[in-house]
Amino acid sequence: MKIDLHCHSYYSDDGISSPEKLIKMALKKGLDGIALTDHDTTKGWKEAAEVAKKLNAVLIWGEEIKIKKNGKTVGEILGYFLKKEINPRGKSVEEVIDEIKKQGGLAIIAHPYHWIKPFKELEKYKNLADGIEVFNARSQTKKGNQKSFIFAQKNNLAMTAGSDAHHCSEVGDAYIEAEVKNLEELKEAVLEKKVKIF
């Protein structure tokens, strides 16, 4: 199964494409589907689910959650396999991760070495999250991706990858692959570090 784990639709304030266009592009590029991870919203889930069902595509319900402390961004967490939206307002990193896990989801630190907004205090939170995004095709430089990979290896953390697409043309620029039959197995493969990064 090949999945782009980081995609934004026009339900993100900086996204351009519809969930339908994102999913169609994923299939066109030989992927099985996407994780829809709009910024602090799940408004696109219903639309994406209808399209995924119609096209027999895989869809992971996700959200990219921005966490602030004293008005300053601490970083972003990717929540996967969620059941409902998580509102980060007034919540700490610990509280957001706890809420993701209570929903049975995976909490992944997004683009920790982002060239503008890196994840602050990565060392402090590394063992709370389920893993880190080691390959981000849009928001990290090659050096940033390398640093993420080395950090994950050194700390024995689960690794993910995603395009961080904000336009459908970017879908599939980074993705994971695993020998699994369903989403529950995919979730386990991520946790057990049995995914390939592309």
Automatic annotation (TrEMBL):
Residues 3-69 form the Polymerase/histidinol phosphatase N-terminal domain. GO terms for molecular function: 5'-3' DNA exonuclease activity; 5'-3' RNA exonuclease activity. InterPro entries: PHP_dom, PHP_domain, Pol/His_phosphatase_N, Pol/histidinol_Pase-like. Gene3D superfamilies: Metal-dependent hydrolases (3.20.20.140). Coiled coil: none annotated. CDD domains: PHP_HisPPase_AMP. It holds the Pfam family PHP. This is Polymerase/histidinol phosphatase N-terminal domain-containing protein.
